[in-house]
Amino acid sequence: MGLQPSVFHMNEGHSAFLGLERISELMNKGINYKTALEYVRSTTLFTTHTPIAAGNEAFEFEMIDKYFKNLWPKLEISHEKFFDLGRNTNIHQHENFSLTVLALNLSNQANGVSRLHGEVSRDMWQKVYPGVPITEIPIGHVTNGIHTFT
Predict the structure, then answer these.
(1) CA 25, 29, 33 angle in degrees (round to 5)?
(2) Which pLDDT tens digit goes with each residue over 121-136?
(3) Predicted model pTM
């Protein structure tokens, strides 16, 4: 199509692999991992729609290892550093690989789909931003819809 987008939008966690592919493509052009990661973060927006933990995809590390074990060598990072991009501890204190955490770590900006959802998301994903006051967590909101009379 000849399009050259300057900003990418990831809609829900299942789109987070987009960020990994963009990093890989940049590294194929000779850019190092750290620079590629920062570039991808600075040109990516993430929208979360699901304000409950059970609605956010997460996988066991063994499954991620099975399907992505060839990627982290290409990215020139350790498997631990790769897992850290999506590392999550669920309500049962069990670690897994969360696509929402991955998307948040690969985005410069994030938003929920309403003011309340932005508030819920900041609280829900506070662990991705350790030490950041909840009011400063970079998850905003947009209005996801329109009411023509208001």
Answers:
(1) 65
(2) 999 999 999 999 999 9
(3) 0.91
